[in-house]
Design brief:
Number of helices: 15
Radius of gyration: 24 Å
Shape: globular
Largest sheet: 15 strands, mixed
Number of strands: 21
Helix content: 25-40%
Length: 554
């Protein structure tokens, strides 16, 4: 395959030469000055890195796959070439121990209700896996409908009240209780809270001692189509080493209706009951029989991190983190031959490349505080790399000023504003506004976080650990088109919205015709904001009453 080798070599050479540093001015001393004087992020290295990271050569940057190994090697080589200092002892890698499992053919999920046996087809009716490291899991258990599957003392809400769910299969709705006229702000009002995320519900099922949990999928409640969990569960599933649910997954709405009807229940009526505070679990006259056959392997994966040391004798002991996950969904094989490559150009080759370009700009112009460039692994598996980092941080969390995350960036063109969803939870919002103004930008209007985007990217691992954090400029998922594009605004917003069809699909591929000026703008804003934080007299603070601000950082 000489053509492919030549193309890969050319891409690598271009990316390596694009990392040569350029001269820039001195670092800023305040938020407004940061935007004017922070080192410039260049498009050439960003584009070179992106085209390489999204190439077939890297096989979709899959967790536990050869493409992931190549990506880690590329990132640590680039970090050294750029001039970043190692963040993990003498190297750039932080080891993350994972367990990989994949549901195998021959697995089955069967319901019995009302004297009927209801068979499910994997992928059409249900997707599921074992998360406890077992090769062969057998499960026979009664089924309980637990509404939203939430235990939230601060909301006075407990969907498990009055019923012992240990050893039972839970069926739950995605999302969280909707606002009412008398309680318009319950569970974040129109915005999705952490309690609405599938990750929370899986974790809560484990805490409750359940035999397993299945979530009822609707596109409206999940904010993505059925194809997303199908694609996810069709790949190897990873989790951090430790206990996990014997069975966890999703069922389609049609299958849920079939099950509930056979059990003599009206699904819509139960959904309505689950919206009312005081709801109690409803045991169904139904049971589940499941056998989950899995491949299981122990996998060592790696976060990659490099440092630009601070210059201030005191403040250099504190750090600002910029993060962007490097992984995507990898490569499928059929009969030992490559089948599908999930390149993940936007998700998240864009953020990975942008961080490299930002680091290149920053190394020659250190700030008062230390700056850490972090590429977490296994984000697509449930933020595992960033979670592992916060459990064993390379820099003390108590001295970590903020995490500014980049994920799925703007590939359409420049904007007149910048999105900072989640910044309003801390003083980072005021700093963001100052930086935006200095760049001639406004902050995009805040909109309800219907899909729970704040809880779907690596910054959230830092927020849960008490570090102010947010994902900068999440324009890709701004479905309302609120971002003000400079050129052909309506068409640009349409192209951005159209990416939802490519999200977690093999069609998320690099296009050399992309206008990356908006991506550079987004990266520049992030670096400017980081410099403003790194040069400020004090670290950012959470907004009064913010739940994550109550977390004591180790």
């Amino acid at each position: 395959m000489p053509d492919r080798r030549f193309r890969a070599a050319a891409l690598l050479t271009a990316a390596l030469f694009a990392t040569l540093p350029a001269a820039h001015g001195a670092p800023p001393a305040a938020a407004a000055a940061a935007a004017a004087a922070a080192p410039a992020v260049l498009e050439a290295p960003l584009r070179a890195h992106l085209s390489f990271l999204a190439d077939d050569l890297l096989e979709g940057r899959g967790t536990g796959q050869r493409g992931g190994e190549l990506t880690v090697r590329y990132l640590e080589t680039q970090a050294a070439a750029i001039g970043l200092k190692p963040a993990a002892g003498k190297g750039y890698r932080q080891k993350v121990e994972l367990v990989g499992q994949k549901t195998q053919p021959g697995s089955l999920l069967r319901f019995e209700a009302g004297g009927k046996v209801i068979e499910t087809a994997f992928g059409r009716d249900a997707v599921y896996a074992n998360a406890g490291g077992q090769l062969d899991t057998r499960l026979d258990a009664p089924i309980v409908f637990v509404g939203y599957g939430i235990d939230a003392p601060e909301e006075g809400w407990n969907d498990f009240r009055g019923v012992d769910v240990k050893g039972k299969l839970l069926v739950a709705m995605v999302n969280d209780p909707q606002p009412t006229s008398t309680e318009p702000e319950r569970f974040g009002g129109k915005s999705l809270t952490w309690y609405g995320r599938w990750t929370y519900k899986f974790e809560e099922a484990l805490r409750q001692g359940a035999a397993g949990i299945l979530l009822i999928h609707t596109t409206a409640s999940a904010s993505y189509p059925w194809s997303v969990p199908v694609n996810s569960f069709s790949h190897e599933q990873f989790h951090l080493a430790g206990p996990g649910n014997p069975l966890q997954g999703w069922i389609s709405e049609d299958m849920a209706r079939t099950l509930f009807m056979a059990a003599g229940q009206d699904l819509d009526a139960l959904r309505a009951r689950a919206e009312v505070k005081g709801f109690q679990p409803v045991p169904l006259s139904a049971s589940v029989h499941a056998q989950v056959k899995s491949t299981v392997r122990q996998v060592a994966e790696y976060n990659v991190a490099g440092i630009v040391p601070g210059t201030d004798p005191k403040l250099r002991d504190e750090a600002v983190i910029y993060s962007a996950h490097w992984d995507h969904l990898g490569i499928d094989e059929h009969n030992g031959q490559p089948d599908h490559i999930w390149n993940g150009a936007i998700d998240n080759g864009s953020g990975t490349a942008a961080l490299l370009a930002m680091a290149q700009a920053a190394v020659a112009h250190p700030a008062r505080r230390t700056q850490i460039f972090l590429w977490p692994c296994a984000e697509e598996q449930g933020l595992l790399g960033s979670l592992a980092y916060t459990r064993a941080p390379l820099w003390p969390l108590a001295k970590t000023a903020a995490d500014l995350n980049l994920d799925s960036m703007n590939f359409v063109g420049p904007t007149r504003d910048i999105g900072v969803p989640g910044a309003e939870r801390s003083s980072l919002y005021a700093t963001s506004r100052q930086v935006a103004q200095a760049m001639g930008l406004t902050l995009a209007p805040g909109v309800p976080d219907l899909g729970g985007a704040y809880f779907r990217a690596d910054h959230f691992s830092f927020a849960k650990a008490g570090v102010p954090a947010f994902n900068v400029g999440s324009a890709v998922f701004s479905g309302d088109g609120s971002f003000a594009f400079v050129h052909d605004a309506a068409a640009s917003a349409g192209r951005m919205r159209a990416f939802t069809k490519d999200y977690h699909q093999v069609s998320d591929q690099y296009d050399p015709d992309w206008d990356l000026s908006g991506m550079v703008q987004q990266a520049q804003f992030t670096l400017n904001l980081g410099y403003a934080v790194a040069n400020a007299p004090s670290m950012p603070a959470w907004r009064a009453g913010e739940a994550w601000g109550k977390v004591k950082r180790p």
